[in-house]
Amino acid sequence: ALDVLDSKPASHTFKIELICIVDSNNKGMYVSRTMKGEMMLPNSRLMHWAKQIFGWWYLRGYR
User: Fold this and answer.
1) For residue 23, is it within any domain?
2) What distance in Å separates the CA atoms of residue 21 and residue 15, rounded to the nearest whole number?
3) The pLDDT value given to residue 4
């Protein structure tokens, strides 16, 4: 996995991907980008609540 540090050519690559919900306090916007294309959905309250639920779900193990 760290072939480059051993002066060897890289043996693995990675995918360039982005999935994000940009939250603006009462609305949120979904943005995604992959090698196949990109998608952006307009601001909506649904995305705000989706981010709130995801944040709660993700952080519950750390609290």
Assistant:
1) yes
2) 20
3) 76
| 15-62 per-position pLDDT tens digit | 889 999 999 989 999 999 999 999 999 999 999 999 999 999 999 989
Q: Other CB atoms closer than 10 Å to residue 52's CB: what's the count?
A: 13
Whose tokens are 């952080």? That residue is: 59
Alpha-carbon span 43 to 40, nearest angstrom: 9
Q: How far, CA to CA in Å, does 57 sit from each of 13, 25, 47? A: 30, 18, 15
Of residues 10 and 51, more confidently modeled? 51
Are the CB atoms for 45 and 26 separated by under 8 Å?
yes
Tokens of 29: 């916007």
Give the model's pLDDT for residue 13.
Answer: 78
Structurally, the chain folds into a number of domains equal to 1
57 belongs to a structural domain: no
